[in-house]
Amino acid sequence: MSKQANGSLEVMQNVADNLRQARMQQGYSQEVLATRAGISRRMLVNIEAGESNASIATVDKLASALGLRFVDVVRPPSLTDKAQALPLRIWQGEHADSHASLLESVAMPGMALELWRWQLAAGDSYHAEADAPGCQELLYVLEGSLQVQLLQQNHMLQAGQSLGFALDQPCSYHNQGAEPCTFTKSVLMVPHQDQ
Length: 195
Prior knowledge:
Layout: H1 9-25, H2 30-37, H3 41-48, H4 56-65, H5 70-74, E1 88-92, E2 99-108, E3 111-120, E4 125-128, E5 136-143, E6 145-149, E7 154-158, E8 162-166, E9 171-174, E10 181-189
Antiparallel strand pairs: 1-2, 2-3, 3-10, 4-9, 5-8, 5-10, 6-7, 6-9
Helix pairs in contact: 2-3, 2-4
């Protein structure tokens, strides 16, 4: 998936297949699903064809519009045991040392909790779109230093430090150090309310 999503070709194909199958099972046209998710029909057509690199936030919006969890859309559709799907590399940056893997996803009534492991190469960044109101993130830096830029706040975290914040705003992660930065993210996801 691109700079904002940059997943592997395998994950892009998983997303395409799972979205198309779930949409058809629920009897939605592409127009209806796109409207429910707040994206253009053209974008959905391209995602289902495996020709578009959807951002992580866009995939989450589509999953929510279908009443699914993010993990249900990115996992290989052939797996009967969903637990075997994880960990799964979801994002790969332009640098080999920049990548993110979904380690675990736990469903709870009205929400899901996801555990991620991220690594950013020296000098690399990742820009995330805003998510649904009520979604929260708690990150913890394992190695290196990480700059987290929120709408009107800038935080510099070193190894051993953590930060929690609401995801209803765009945010950016920057590694301005000379070595890769590794961090975990625990993300509390709630359904998008624009369905």
